[in-house]
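Input record, target 12 of the design panel.
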């Protein structure tokens, strides 16, 4: 009897590169559709395809770890409730925890503020063979810091160039850098904040400051657009991911990460010749 399990079409290569921001084509965030999707399938079918992308990712991560020469830095930014935590959970479930580290950046400590703004991020860039995921990142230093006027304009304006130089230095040190902005609409944020308040198991994620930030929505959209336009470079691109639909968001992010690793083409290390002839003594 024929198996009922749907075979995922591995030859289909959707053009998710269209979400990449080209240095020559600046974007306006408010014009990017958070509901964009090329999938008409049911959620179940999208999740089946996500599983296929996760398998690719797991296999490539194993090769990256074994190769032990290069690494991958993934930056995730979004407004509150934008889905950073959910993306990490769904895209990286199944990846060997030994080869992957997640770093979440909150308000800087006094010690961190007493250093240059990149200090706290640099310490957590990935070692050879590893994947680091930044849940919020050095981009906060041109986003929240700008919108809430925590430093003066002449300070944050210089940071775009400093960020580009930092990321360039990382890429010259065999760290591939990719950056995702998870783009939700203001209405979707309202629904998600309400759901956090209604649901006791999600309520801990709510902070009153989320409302203050929501009221600064338009300022954030401008700051995010500027950050992306100034810092989407050929060596460290930004992708703007439509993120109102969680299953589509996860699929696109997983697909782009797997494609990035595939392009890196990590290799298992060469082993000494003749190992296959060795017999293990009883
Ligand atoms: P959450 O990720 O929602 O738990 O909250 C972390 C909070 O830390 C957010 O409100 C961020 O805006 C804030 N945050 C992260 N990085 C910085 C920074 N460099 N300066 C000031 N606030 C920051
Ligand atoms: Mg928050």
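The sequence produced for target 12 reads:
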């Amino acid at each position: 009897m024929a198996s009922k399990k749907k075979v995922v079409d591995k030859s289909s290569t959707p053009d998710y590169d269209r979400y990449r921001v080209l240095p020559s084509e600046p974007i306006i965030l408010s014009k990017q559709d958070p509901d964009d999707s090329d999938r008409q399938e049911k959620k179940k079918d999208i999740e089946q395809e996500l599983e296929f992308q996760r398998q690719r990712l797991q296999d490539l991560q194993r090769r990256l770890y074994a190769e032990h020469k290069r690494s991958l830095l993934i930056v995730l930014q979004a407004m509150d409730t934008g889905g950073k935590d959910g993306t990490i959970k769904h895209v990286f479930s199944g990846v060997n925890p030994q080869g992957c580290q997640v770093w979440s950046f909150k308000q800087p400590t006094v010690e961190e503020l007493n250093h240059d703004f990149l200090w706290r991020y640099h310490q957590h860039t990935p070692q050879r063979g590893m994947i680091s995921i930044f849940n919020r990142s050095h981009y906060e230093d041109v986003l929240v810091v700008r919108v809430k006027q925590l430093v003066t304009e002449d300070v944050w304006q210089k940071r775009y160039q400093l960020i580009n130089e930092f990321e360039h230095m990382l890429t010259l040190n065999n760290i591939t850098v990719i950056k995702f902005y998870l783009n939700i609409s203001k209405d979707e944020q309202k629904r998600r904040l309400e759901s956090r308040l209604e649901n006791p198991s999600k309520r801990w994620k709510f902070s009153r400051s989320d409302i203050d930030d929501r009221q600064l929505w338009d300022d954030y959209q401008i700051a995010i657009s500027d950050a992306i336009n100034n810092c989407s470079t050929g060596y460290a691109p930004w992708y703007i991911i439509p993120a109102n639909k969680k299953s589509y968001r996860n699929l696109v992010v997983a697909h782009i990460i797997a494609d990035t690793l595939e392009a890196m083409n990590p290799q298992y290390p060469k082993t000494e010749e003749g190992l296959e002839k060795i017999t293990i003594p009883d």
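The chain has one domain: 17-265.
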